[in-house]
Write a structure and sequence with these properties.
This protein has one domain (28-111). Helix content is 47%, strand content 16%. It contains 3 helices and 4 strands; from the N terminus they run αβαββαβ. It has a two-stranded antiparallel sheet with strand order 1-4. A two-stranded antiparallel sheet has the order 2-3. It is flat, with a radius of gyration of 20 Å.
Length: 111
Amino acid sequence: MRAILVILAAATLAACTPMAWVKDDTAPEQQNKDLANCQRDAFHEARANTWYYRPIGPYMGAGSGRFVISPGAPYYDPFYDPYLEEARLTQFCMKNKGYELKPVEPGKSTS
């Protein structure tokens, strides 16, 4: 029982680690500019690709003895969620520019 609590505490602390995009020999202003460009482009691309997958409304139905409320429809695909797609595209863009997502010490500023 104690081992499970220790593992859960370690996982919780690891989940709270602040992360930042880092690239050697790059000024903080350039890092911020690259991140802003990637986020803007990812936003537009994600919305352009997923506008026709939007659910009309919540789907409510009984399944396996439980009442289920789905965010879209019974065939809603979370991989066409524009927010998830935007995060994936931002990460792809930053990695292509040579950045790495690394943990940052809480007292240290990247900007």
